[in-house]
Amino acid sequence: MADPETERWIGELAQLRREIAELRTEQQELARAVQELAKTFRALALHFGIASEPYPKPKGASPPRESPGFA
Fold first, then answer.
1. How far apart are alpha carbons 47 and 55 in whole angstroms?
2. What is the pLDDT of residues 4-39, one digit of tens each?
3. Helix%, strand%, coil% for the chain, nearest 5
């Protein structure tokens, strides 16, 4: 049987794992909310004429050239 100190550390580690899992869940929810906010701002900018949709590239267009020194 493990000593009380070891059991205490095991309990604390289990608690930390639960807290980390909760933080990850909250982080994922926050990321979804930020994506939704960005989508809303983009739609508003388009609606008010502040921004425009990006110009669609024609199919079969050549791939962009590599900039010198950035390969």
1. 17
2. 999 999 999 999 999 999 999 999 999 999 999 999
3. 65, 0, 35
For residue 15, the one-letter residue type is Q
Residue 67's SS3 state is coil
Cα dihedral 19/21/25/27 (nearest 10): 70
Overall pTM > 0.85: no
Which tokens go with 71?
């390969």
**Amino acid letter at 34?**
V
Report residue 58 as tokens: 């024609």
Query: How long is the chain?
Result: 71
CA 18 vs. chain centroid, Å, equals 21
Instruction: Give the count of beta carbons closer than 10 Å to the beta carbon of residue 51.
Output: 13
